[in-house]
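User: Okay, second chain of the day. Same drill as before: sequence in, structure tokens out.
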Amino acid sequence: MIDLDDFVINLTLFSQEKTEKATPKRRREAREKGQVAKSREVISAVLLFLMFLCLKFFSAYIYGHLKNKTIKFFTIYNDIEKLYDTSNFRSIIVNCIMSFMLIMLPIFGIAILASLLANYLQVGFVFSTKPLMPNFNKLNPIEGLKRIFSKNSLVELFKASFKILFIGYFIYDFLRDNYMMIINFLHMDINSSLVFMGNTIISIGIRASIVLLVLAIFDYAYQLWEYEKNLRMSKQEVKEEYKQVEGNPQIKSRIREKQRQLSLRRMMAEIPKADVIITNPTHYAVALKYDANTSDAPVVIAKGKDLIAFRIKDKARESNIPIVENKAIAQALYNTTDIGQQIPEEMYQAVAEILAFVYSLKNK
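Assistant: Same drill. Structure tokens below.
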């Protein structure tokens, strides 16, 4: 009777469910394509916070420059007719642009540094041109509708609604606590009203940006989770990638077998050059060659065990190479000396006696 338990198959090997963590190769390829865990909310929040902080510290500098430029403008061009002169008009435009750049330079500098810093802290240095390549799938209206009603769109809608509610509440809370000053704003002089308006905008902006920073932390955690989920791989994908990186095990096995065969052929071709073959006599065989002009001691040019030992002895008989039986020496040479190496110093005496015996047979 057949027991069905003997035929249990692990179906997870055929599952395409992405349950495995991304491999380093998968992560590297995604990074090369510009696919990284990045939150735009972090960039916006850091940018907004640092810009309002910059306005707070440089407000006196900005206000002073604006005031001086305004006074200078109305002092120099108090005659309206001068504004219609071409050279004067060009000078006015250049002056306004240069003044604006000079006033806004700290804010622009902080904005650029904030964007670079927020990007670098999230993903490090990434340079990829692949996101700039044209993707005609984006022109497909069906794909566009799918993106509109996708999960990501719903998440973005939820985040936008959340931000509006939180920021709206903090603005309302600030205005409620300072409503008396806002009412008195109508009775202030121009200088005081400008200072109050600037301070109010900066205070509200800093509060709102702090709220955005807190929300951005949660958004970055979500983006990181979503990124890891999208990078996940199925067991089959991991297996295929391993084959690509490490090579197919069957192919590697065949390559190693071919290499062993080539090495064996080269070794067998060296046996006719040997002076003696020392055997176990059945398990080990070691071929030695001694040339006083090229080496200080005999060199192992071939060695083998069991079947290879039998082939070495067979090849030696064909080439009339002397075969000497010495179990201890054969086993010691096989275990301690690789092919192409000289024999150990402690075996000089024993091997010298064997070579002397062989040379006496050859009348050397």
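Residues 1-9 have pLDDT under 50 and may be disordered.

User: Thanks, on to the next one.
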